[in-house]
C-alpha cells in the first residue's frame, strides 16, 4: 500500500529505522547538494549567485532563464576559472553531521552504497574519520555498463569528483551521460531499497530514469526539504511503497535516523581514545635504520591514551545533546540543586544548552499531547518553555512555541485570558526575530481562534494582516493561504458577506495550486462554498462543495469531519431542491460521521 507522509515525525523515523534494520544491508542512499550545504558547499543557486557577482559582464546578453541555469552559467567560465571557483569551497568545507551520521550507518553495515550527484569528498572524509575506507567509483570520468564490478560498501560519484567535475556542455551531452548511467540507476532497485536526500530531481536527466526503473517492489523514501512534495514527484509518489518525508533538514534528519538505529554518536566522538587506540593498533612496528629489526614505537602512546581514556570521553551534557536526551541534563541539574551542589550549573560556559534541554522537553510534551489529547501534557509543556526562556530570555523559538501551547490550552478551555497570553508571546518572539513567517502564522491563527470565540470582526481583520505579512515574506506558502482563507471565511460568515466568501475561496484555490491534493484544504474549501451557497441559495455552489468533500474523502478516507461537512452541504442542497433522496444521502453521511467519531473515541480509550 502507498504511505502518505509529509512533514516527518519521530514515528516516521522509527518506521524507516525498523525497515533499514530488517533489510539486512540492502539500502542505498542517493544524495544531492542538500546533503553538503551545512558543510560549506553551496547549492547550485549559491554558486550561480557567486558567478554573477564575480563576472557580471558575462551575463548581460543572456536571457533571464539562462542566467539562472547552473550549466549555462558554468559554461561562461573556462575550466581554469571553474576549478578555482570550486576549489575555494572544497578546501574550506568541513565534515557536517549529516555525513558523519551516514558514515556511521555504513560502518554498522546498514547501508550498501552511496550514489551521489555531489563532487565533494565530505562523505569519504567522514568515513575516514570513523576508520571506514570505502571503494570509490567515478562515473563522471569512467561510466560503465556493468555494475557487478562495484565492491560494496562504496561511494559512486555520478558527475565526477573535485573541482574538475565533468560538465556537460549541452542538453545532448547531458542526455548521453544519462544513458551511460542508466545501468547504474537500474541497479539501484535490484532488490535494494532507496533513500533520496538532498536531491530535488527537478531539472536533470536522472529523475526520469528513477521513474522508469522503480517497479514498486522495494521502498523509496524521498526525504525533502519542503514539507510537501513538488509537482514533478506526484507520479512517482502514487506508486506503492514510495514515501515522502518532508520538512527535513539534512543534518537533523540524519542525526535522528542514526540515533534511532543506535549508531550515533560514533566511537571517534563518544570515546576518542578508544577509537585512536584501535586505529594505532593496526600500525606495524617501525623498521629501524641500518639493521634488520623493528620496534613498536607507538606502544607508549597507546598506553597514555588508555590512562586518559575516561577523561577524554564525552561529558554528560555532551552525551545528552548527541543522543537527543534533554531529560538527562534536566535531571542532573535538579539533582545538583537538590543536594546543594551548584558545580554542575557553574561549570557550563553559558545557559544555552540547558535552555535547549527544557525547550526540547517542552516540544516532545507538546507533540505527545496531540496524540493523547491530554491537557495536562500541554500545561507541562508550557512550564518547560517557561524554564527555557528564563535561562535564555532571547530564545525566540521557545517563546514562539510557548505561545503555541498556550493557544492550544486556550482553545480547549475557551479561555480568552490564555489567548491573550499566547498573543503576547508571539509579539515578543516577533520583536526578537522580526518578521518570521512561522511566528506570524501562529499569531494569526491565535487571533482568528479568539475572534471565533468573541465573534469579533476586528480580531479576524488583525489575523488577516498577519497572514498577508507572512505571505509577503514567504510568498505562496500553502499553509498561509489556507489559514488566511479560514479567517476570511469566518469573517464572511459573521458579516454574511458574499465578497469575503469569494476571497476565502480564492485563497483555498491558491493553497491547492501550491500544495495539490491536501484534504484539509478541500474540506475548508467545501465549507466556504457551502456557506456561500446558503447565502446565495445557489444549487451549483452546493454541488461544487459536495465535489470538494468527495475529493477530501478520496485523499483522506473516513475522516468524520469530512462526512459531517458533506452531510451539511447535502442537507442544505436537499432543502433548496426539496429532494427526499438528497436528505437520505445526507443522513447517511451524518450516520457515517457519527460511527467514525465513536470508533476514534474507542481507539483513544484503548
Show the helix and strand layout.
Elements: H1 10-22, E1 27-31, H2 44-54, H3 64-67, H4 70-74, H5 79-92, H6 97-107, E2 113-116, H7 122-129, E3 135-138, E4 154-157, H8 171-188, E5 193-197, H9 207-213, E6 220-223, H10 234-237, E7 242-245, H11 250-260, H12 267-270, H13 272-280, E8 286-287, E9 294-295, H14 299-307, H15 309-312, H16 316-323, H17 326-338, H18 343-347, H19 352-372, H20 375-391, H21 396-413, H22 416-432, H23 437-454, H24 457-473, H25 478-495, H26 498-514, H27 519-536, H28 539-555, H29 560-577, H30 580-605
Parallel strand pairs: 1-2, 1-5, 2-4, 3-4, 5-6, 6-7
Antiparallel strand pairs: 8-9
In short:
This protein folds into five domains: 10-39 and 95-260, Rossmann fold (3-Layer(aba) Sandwich), CATH 3.40.50.1220; 42-92, no CATH class; 268-343, no CATH class; 435-516, Alpha Horseshoe (Serine Threonine Protein Phosphatase 5, Tetratricopeptide repeat); 519-606, Serine Threonine Protein Phosphatase 5, Tetratricopeptide repeat, CATH 1.25.40. It is 63% helix and 6% strand.
Describe, in plain words, how this protein is organized in 3D:
This protein folds into 5 domains: 10-39 and 95-260, TPP-binding domain (Rossmann fold), CATH 3.40.50; 42-92, no CATH class; 268-343, no CATH class; 435-516, Serine Threonine Protein Phosphatase 5, Tetratricopeptide repeat (Alpha Horseshoe), CATH 1.25.40.10; 519-606, Tetratricopeptide repeat domain (Serine Threonine Protein Phosphatase 5, Tetratricopeptide repeat). Strand 6, helix 10 (234-237) and strand 7 form a beta-alpha-beta unit. The chain contains 30 helices and 9 strands. Helix 6 crosses helix 7, helix 6 packs parallel to helix 11 (250-260) and helix 21 (396-413) runs antiparallel to helix 22. The radius of gyration is 29 Å and the shape is globular. It has helices at 10-22, 44-54, 64-67, 70-74, 79-92, 97-107, 122-129, 171-188, 207-213, 234-237, 250-260, 267-270, 272-280, 299-307, 309-312, 316-323, 326-338, 343-347, 352-372, 375-391, 396-413, 416-432, 437-454, 457-473, 478-495, 498-514, 519-536, 539-555, 560-577, 580-605; strands at 27-31, 113-116, 135-138, 154-157, 193-197, 220-223, 242-245, 286-287, 294-295. The model is unreliable at 1-5 and 339-348 (pLDDT under 50). The strands form 2 sheets. Strands 3-4-2-1-5-6-7 form a 7-stranded parallel β-sheet, with helices on one face. By secondary structure, the chain is mainly alpha-helical. Helices cover 63% and strands 6% of the residues.
